[in-house]
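Check out a protein:
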Amino acid sequence: MDLARVAPAADLERTATELVACGSLEMNADRAPDARAIAAELPVGTRVYVNHLPRHSLEDSLAALVALREAGLEPVPHLAARRIGARQALRRYLERAVGEAGVAKVLVIGGDVRESAGPYADGTALLREGVLAECGVREVGLPGYPEGHPSIPRPVLARHLAERLAIARAQGLGVHILTQFSFAPARVVEYASELAREAPGVPVYIGLAGPTDPLRLLRFAQRCGVSASLRALRAQGMGAVQLVTHTDPMEQLVAVARHCALVPECNVVGVHLYSFGAAAETAAWMNRVLTAAKRQ
C-alpha cells in the first residue's frame, strides 16, 4: 500500500505538527544557558532531557535542570546506570533534582561502559531498587532501539523492556519509551508497530537526528549504534557530506506522521530531537515547524 497516496497532505501536516508540539529535545548537562534560548522558541512545559555523558557527574546537570525549570520548561535528567558510583550518591542527586528543579520524570539508560562504576549493572537494577519513587520521581522513560543495540541481542532488549515496564508499574511509576534515532524511516515505522503490540498503551517518543553538521552527525551515528541505516546510505552512494541533507529531520518526521495518521493503534505521541550539542538550533527548527502550521 502506498501510504503517501492514502494519507491526505492536510492530515500529514496536522499530525507532524502535533508530534513536534508534544515532543522534546536534548541538551548537554554543561550548557545551562541554553535553557533560555530553548524557552524562547518552544511552548511552556516542553520536555528537555539533560544528558549524562561519561565526562559529567550526576551533579553536573543540576544547574541545567534548575535553569530549565526557571525558564518554564520541564527538565528530564538522564540516569546512566552503569556510570553511577554509589547508591547514596544517586539518592542525594535525585533528592536535589526533585527539590530544587521540580524533576518528576527521568530517563533511565544503561550507560555504555564496559565496567560498572558502582552498584548498578544496568537500568533494570537501578529501577528494581525503588529509589526513584522514594525520592519523588513519578514517571520513568525507557530507551527503545529501532535498529537494535550494538552489543545487546534483540531478544534480550525485548526481555529487558518487558521487565522494566513491569517493575515501573509495580512501583506506581508512569512509563514512556524514547527511541534512538535512525536513518531508516521504514525501520522506525516497523519498530513503532512492534511497540504497539509489545507495550500497548505506553506512550512512545520517536527519536530524530536534529539538524547538525554532517561530520558530527556521522560521528554520533557510529557511536550510537545506528550502523544498519548507515550501511544502507553508503550502499546508495551517500557520503558524509550528503548525509545531513538526506536525513533532514523533516523527512523522518513525515514518515512517522504518516504512520500515526494511518494506524489507529499507534501509540507514538511525539518526537524527540537529539541535538548533538546544538540545543538552541534544534529548538529553532522545532519552532519553524510549529510556526509554519500556525500560518496555514
User: Anything to note?
Assistant: The longest strand covers residues 74-80. The chain has one domain: 3-291.
